[in-house]
């Protein structure tokens, strides 16, 4: 029988009714997806429908499918879990359940479906897509709907978004929620670290991930764990002896604690589960270590999403709506993925197939294939982990002629991840037979001398010196803004004195400037004719040659935490606006990305500047929003202003202008988080990327080991900057970057890839466009 109320007529033109649902295990960031899909749909003239409780809502229909308005998703970015609910739905696994789901979609006039879930949910979506035509035919033949009713729904557009803490989906580097979960795990391991060290204990920490070892591996990389067990790369046949030998080696070197991370799906090469108790017994009985097991459990799922998951979910939600609007009947069903820094569309069928292939490869004990199928980055992290954890690997050691003395130096302000990068570089050097040399307190530290005698700021580093640095914030070797041109001659003399064969610089725009100076001075000082690489590390993320500097994610997390607290205060007092001043120098990156992560009403950047009309427009918008506000929660507003966005319109001036114009109808305050933005403990994303990029830099420097000075000078890549650009990790030659990509005056890249995201912040906060008013 046709439904009593009939099927709603299709929306005019290309406008769609877009259903959005969350499914499978909950993951932090799912609410950000729903918010972005709902608001972007409305902004594009479409209607958005929330499908509550996952596929259960689709099968049951009725009240579980509701139209969602703009204000329904207010304040959702900071909420953990999923506010529209999720469920494991057995009925949807069977065709009758899916028939009911199809009918419910049509009854509500929904012609596009955005699903955020794990591989199971997307498999279900793929089956629904595959059966769709057959389901419509069946609905007509059963006389549940008639041909006219189903006709407008011949093509159901499905778009997948991967929301899962496990990061177990192929064809994407990250799933929504995985970095929040990793943050929680690292937080816990960091806490356990201190007690383990105090009592010289060993801890076996079990983490989630089902059949995927991503969380375990990344937790191992981020925290410098001694051993990691994961399903797709079971340890060797004699793993018991191997693990005990490695742990005792670490202990002999002076390590006071042992951390073993074990994925819940860990197994041996015969696919027998390796339980944490077995590992504990080995450590206790074979090595006599006082060993405890900690199972982290559901804390790994909960809590507010980290900054990255808020950005990822928002940008993917926006892309999902765009994919719906771009779709033609011929368009293959996409899943929205992220590769390095780029949001991309991949085929849902291919992604589901590749994910299942991993499972099959594991079942067939083809572990190398399983690793390869996860993704290239995963394998790289695994190799990096091995290289930076094991202390003595004769297999990796280079011949004497290829061994180098590598200087490691921090320049500029501290940034989260500098220590992780240094630790990784040192461990890499030691495993290859190079000599890592820490230069304390930057270039001024290098040059410090008394009566022509160096003052001991340059020291060879041992494994134990850096072993505990994986999770440390700040700069353990000390950083300094001083540049080589303060004393080129002395700098060159010190390069020779310490016999540097390669230099690894970690830092922000100052570090970039330092490398540029050393390059230009090569013609006068032969000591600089050695390979040098820069790993960009700055909270401002303003280094040319990369879209991502380590430290910027830590900064965003610190800022997001600060803004969440402030927003709560602003919401509690209902009618309050906070103008928050962010760091970032002359780059608006931090302000914009924080704006995206917290749902700021407006973001003021140096790139755009601040004008009186802009302020008038925003104040008018505030006036109207507060006038409409009926006192619902989440009504507090935030404006983010970069510290150098305007000389005249300071943070306080803006807050005062708003208060003056509000005429008592709402309040306004300014807030300056200042150096809180450098963050305390580095975020896991900064830690893992620091490790990976540092190792890549070392490998790059190593390529010059046997080259003559002339060959080094002739190769422009011998002085380069590592960067993440779009979907790739690349080295850019300093020579090219200086001339083509650097805005020296504004101390930022000429082309800032994130600039286009500002429009997204504005759309999702409902900020009026200039042409819409005044
Ligand atoms: P997570 O990775 O967090 O566990 P998931 O999406 O993989 O998330 P599942 O429990 O596997 O979680 O799947 C969620 C829901 O998707 C299931 O309860 C079921 O309704 C649907 N689903 C899963 N697999 C299929 C399938 N093969 N056919 C139809 N529906 C499926």
UniProtKB/TrEMBL annotation:
Catalyzes the phosphorylation of D-fructose 6-phosphate to fructose 1,6-bisphosphate by ATP, the first committing step of glycolysis. HAMAP family: Phosphofructokinase_I_E. GO terms for biological process: canonical glycolysis; fructose 1,6-bisphosphate metabolic process; fructose 6-phosphate metabolic process. Residues 405-774 are annotated as: C-terminal regulatory PFK domain 2. Keywords: Allosteric enzyme, ATP-binding, Cytoplasm, Glycolysis, Kinase, Magnesium, Metal-binding, Nucleotide-binding, Transferase. Substrate binds at residues 164-166, 201, 208-210, 264, 292, 298-301. It comes from Heterodermia speciosa. Residues 1-390 are annotated as: N-terminal catalytic PFK domain 1. Pathway: Carbohydrate degradation; glycolysis; D-glyceraldehyde 3-phosphate and glycerone phosphate from D-glucose: step 3/4. It is found in: Cytoplasm. The keyword Metal-binding applies. This is ATP-dependent 6-phosphofructokinase. Mg(2+) binds at residue 119. Its EC number is 2.7.1.11. Homotetramer.
